[in-house]
Structures are given as structure tokens and as C-alpha cells.
Design brief:
- This protein is mainly beta.
- Helices cover 3% and strands 54% of the residues.
- The chain is built from 1 helix and 8 strands, in the order βββββββαβ.
- The longest helix is centred in the C-terminal third of the chain and has 5 residues.
- The chain starts with a strand and ends in a 13-residue tail after the last strand.
Amino acid sequence: YLTEGGGEYECFDYSNGSAGTWYTPILKTYSYGFSLPTGAEITGIECQIKKTGFGAATWYDYEVKLYVGGVQVGDNKAITSTPYSGYVTDTYGGPSDLWGLTPTKTQIEASNFGVGIKCKAVAVEYDYNVVIDFIRLKIYYSVPSGSSPFFGVPF
């Protein structure tokens, strides 16, 4: 089973930047509103992020990590070697990927559970920015025999 939640648009503008390598602040998203059935066992976490970069810079993921209890934890799922090419939607994790964690139902449902992305720009001159169009999370889980599944919040 899975339950899903989504985030919103954000833009980091570096119009006063200069040539070199630059990093955005971490864009953190929380409060996905997940509600899992009693006894749910988390089997995987999947994140989709739609993003693009503009201007005289080549943009890359630098860090994509989960936040549990408001603290950055687990494996870094960033795709660090592939630059953004137009608007791209990348998928991180999946149905059987726990990001190096053992998250509980209570942690997933908490308002301070979420995901963060930090981007890297390799710039040749000033005036460049990156846009995060959306961030979505899917939680995959199993339920004890005889329980009814709950599918949660749709994209």
C-alpha cells in the first residue's frame, strides 16, 4: 500500500552571484498529513522532485535527505552527477528503499517529517536561479493480516 503527499513551488535567485560553485539553502518540506493504519510497517519511501535551473549556470542535486523529528537523517539520495536539463522530475528512493532508516508510523505521521533538497550551481557568470516546482512523497507500507488498507492523500 502507499500514501502520498505533495509540496509547492520555490525559487532561489542568484542574480547577484558570480562565477564559481554555489549552493542553495536547503529547501525543507514538512506536514504532509500522512495517516497510516494501526500496525502499519513502513516498507519504502519515494520522493519525486520537479526542478530546473536557469541562467549561466549548470545545476545539480547536492543533497536530498529526509527529515525525521525535524532533523536531517538517512542516506543522501541526490543525483549528483547529472545536470538538470530543462524541467526534470527525478525519483529518489522507492517501494523497498528506507533511506538507511527504520521509520515508524508515528514518525511518518508527525508534522516535522519531510524531505529537503540542496542544489549546486557551477556558474560562469552572474544571474542564475533554480526552481523547485514540486516535491512529492510516497510512503509504502504493509498492514497486518485482516486490516483494511488506507491510501491517504493523493498527489
